[in-house]
Amino acid sequence: MDSKIEVKKEDLKKLFDTLTNYPQISKEQVEHEMKKTFGDDVFKPKDIKERVKTFEDACRELGDEHPFVKEWHLGENLSEDLEAYLKLRVIVAAINEGWKPEFTEDEWRYYPWFWLYTQDEINNMPCEEKVRRNLQIKQIGHFAGFASAYSNNVPSSTDASFGSRLCLKNSELATYCGKQFIELWMKFTTVQTGK
After folding, report:
1. Within 13 Å and on the Cβ side, how many CA atoms surround 71?
2. What is the C-alpha to C-alpha distance for residues 90 and 177, in angstroms, rounded to an integer?
3. Strand, helix or coil at 166?
4. pLDDT by residue for the chain (195 residues), tens digit each?
5. Which residues are 67's β-sheet partners?
6. Most buried by CB count within 10 Å: which residue of 28, 30, 87, 141?
């Protein structure tokens, strides 16, 4: 997206007249008028991490006609893990912004990294250690916690034992997706229920 926009003097004058006619103008009114004049894309955050913070954001980003969004709407009476997978599929597609893995020899693909901690490990871990390990932990009942972590060789290593359908185009997005959507990842990877 180009960082320059062309503005006609008459459009700017019309916008000025509209905005200065309100006795007390709200932020929503300003946003509405600015988008009406310049278009939605001008004010849309460039960073995908700013645009996709919820499942609903991911659906809006892809649009109702995207196959993953359509398939999500078809699901009824889904198990918790399947519902989480369908949502993650939409989220990952939105975050990847059109990138799809080609599975070539030289292609790198990324996925979130998770650890399962016992309740004692969580309780005894100092806050500094949680920060150093860059952890975000969600409780699983009374006995354990599920953590999204980032690691670069130390203190652990990685392997490619994760489903390739939910891979991301870079490590930054994989870390973001794991932390932002940790509850869905937890349901997808740890819950085995049927309805």
Report:
1. 11
2. 12
3. helix
4. 456 777 777 877 777 777 777 778 887 787 777 777 777 766 677 899 999 999 999 999 999 999 999 999 888 889 888 999 999 999 999 999 999 988 888 889 888 887 777 777 777 888 887 666 656 666 555 544 555 555 444 444 444 444 567 999 999 999 999 989 988 998 888 755 444
5. none
6. 87
> 168: which DSSP letter?
B
Calculate helix-pair angle for 80-95, 182-190, nearest 10 degrees. 130
Long-range CB contacts (within 8 A, 24+) of 62-67: 62/90, 62/93, 62/94, 66/90, 66/93
> DSSP letter string over 130-145?
HHHTT-EEEEETTTEE
What pTM does this model have?
Answer: 0.67
Stretch (H or E) spanning 13:
helix 9-21
User: Helix, strand, coil % (nearest 5) of the chain?
Assistant: 50, 10, 40
Q: Peptide bond preceding 101: is omega within 30 degrees of 0, i.e. cis?
A: no
